[in-house]
Amino acid sequence: MNHKHTHRDQDNPAAFHPQQASSRVALLLWMAVCLSCAILARAIAAEEKKVPESQQRLSSTVEYLSADEREGRGVGTKGLDMAADFIGKEFSRLGLKVRIGQAC
């Protein structure tokens, strides 16, 4: 066996070394598994923090109706008319019939 040839292969960075290659593959696989776990954990955390659509819609409605522009929805104010228009449009969007001036 020629020891110089073996020694030259070790000094040559382009030479193929099976043990190093399998170590690199194992390291890459381990890194891929860790990355996959991190991505999955973030996705699960994001899903847990996700606010249901109905809760978002309710929050948006309350924010609109309670905004300063609605002027407290006081009798005779433009804010009351704006709130009534908003509620009427929401009822119509939901398929409810709006009967203005009629008792239920």
Short description:
The protein is mainly α and 104 residues long.
Architecture blueprint of SSEs:
Blueprint: H1 3-11, H2 18-49, H3 53-66, H4 78-93
Q: Could you walk me through the main structural features you see in this protein, from its secondary elements to its overall organization?
A:
By secondary structure, the chain is mostly helical. The chain folds into two domains: 3-49; 53-93. Helices cover 68% and strands 0% of the residues. It is built from four helices and no strands. The chain has helices at residues 3-11, 18-49, 53-66, 78-93. The longest helix is centred in the N-terminal third of the chain and has 32 residues, at 18-49. The model has no long low-confidence stretch (mean pLDDT 77).
Offer a few descriptive terms.
mainly alpha
Q: Hey, roughly how much beta strand do the residues contain? A: under 5%
Instruction: Please trace the helix and strand order, writing H or E for each element.
Output: HHHH
Note the overall shape.
rod-shaped
**Protein structure class:** mainly alpha
Q: Number of DSSP helices?
A: 4
Helix coverage percent: 55-70%
Query: Mean pLDDT across all residues, rounded?
Result: 77
How far apart the termini lie comes to 103 Å
Radius of gyration: 34 Å
Q: Sheet bearing the most strands, described?
A: none
Low-confidence stretches: none
Count of folded domains: 2
Q: Count the strands? A: 0
